[in-house]
Amino acid sequence: MRSLTPRQQDLLDYLRGCAAEEHAPTLDTICRDMGLRSRGSLHKHIRALVAAGLVEPMGGQHRGVRLTQAAIPDEDGLPLLGRIAAGRPIEAVTHDSRIQVPAALRTQGPCYVLEVRGDSMSDDGILDGDWVVVEQRDHARNGEVVVALVDDEEATLKRIEQRPGVVRLHPANAAYAPLDYHPGRVRIQGVVVGQMRRY
Amino acid sequence: MRSLTPRQQDLLDYLRGCAAEEHAPTLDTICRDMGLRSRGSLHKHIRALVAAGLVEPMGGQHRGVRLTQAAIPDEDGLPLLGRIAAGRPIEAVTHDSRIQVPAALRTQGPCYVLEVRGDSMSDDGILDGDWVVVEQRDHARNGEVVVALVDDEEATLKRIEQRPGVVRLHPANAAYAPLDYHPGRVRIQGVVVGQMRRY
DNA sequence: CTTGTCGGTTCTCTCTTTGTTCTCTACAGT
DNA sequence: ACTGTAGAGAACAAAGAGAGAACCGACAAG
After folding, report:
1. Full-model pTM
2. Which of A189, B125, B139, B143 has an alpha carbon 20 to 30 Å from A150's alpha carbon atom?
3. Class of domain A6-68
4. Residue B68 has pLDDT above 70, yes or no
């Protein structure tokens, strides 16, 4: 993942400063505060932040410039967002919690950590209780292990296989069968880039 | 790998000093700080560092001079001693190398890291290429995964079961059978306390 | 319902900064 | 003299950054 340019970093810092405000700022406001005259130029930067997964894509809505979970500065370690299991949505951890992750186990991009529940990926060496480091992005290559949201309801950890017209999610456990879905029903929320276990 | 020329070493030292900065420096900045007048000359040195695997190749991007993982000195990390596989002694890594390990994955005691070779523990979620964090000690409780030295020759990663008069080493792979030894033949070198994997 | 405004989106055009590749020169040590 | 290291400077290509115009959807006023 590509790191931010200085100007994009400026914008991100500015947006972080705005996080406390009641409304997200409009593009014109940001332009004024950042000394820009053209919304177009600013929007280009925003698009870069969206691509970096730091800002929620705002499909035309007003005052939609919102930071992603992952954009919250990682003082030390990555946010532990919750638990993930087959067949259930991510169960958020109650208190905001962070976990130290070695640089080798994460990417440059925005990452977070989930605790794995269940044994649906056990043949791939991801066991109950393991932590997985997830890079937040909305696309994946075939064969990658992804956090996939089906019908905006069930978040699962599965190996993905994308073919024209069908998305197949493979659990890595002989006891479970792969499931086929229409591509429109599956939203990729992130890709597993690392894994840790404590004994 | 060819060793660095003095000037290349200067550059590397300078870049390490920059690592804490928010943005990577531009070539012009480096030139100024290193007393050079020509970006071209500097770029030649950078290319040498890229060839040495110490700097990420930056395909035309601005501020792209970034150090590779290998070039960032991990003062605080655990030593990566080598690879371990069933049936062979630990194969030492050539150059002294350290790896960052989160506190949650290690114990208070002396620890080191081994890279796993082979699939003899795959049913326990320890796969080929994984790193295991090992606490150095000479005893273990039954059921722990240990680095065991048999006959002072073969170091293996196995789950241990100690009974009066016999030590049984269980691989976690249906393809291999557990092996029984006389307690005198088996020396425990450490116990696995953590595991990490990069995708 | 129509209309106008606001705010997000996309586009093209521009200029500067910065990385990259050349060639040429200098110098030290076999 | 030959080779490897070092540097200068020119020339080029591409990224970064901004300006401004045009477009379009949402929403509120008339």
Report:
1. 0.67
2. B125
3. mainly alpha
4. no
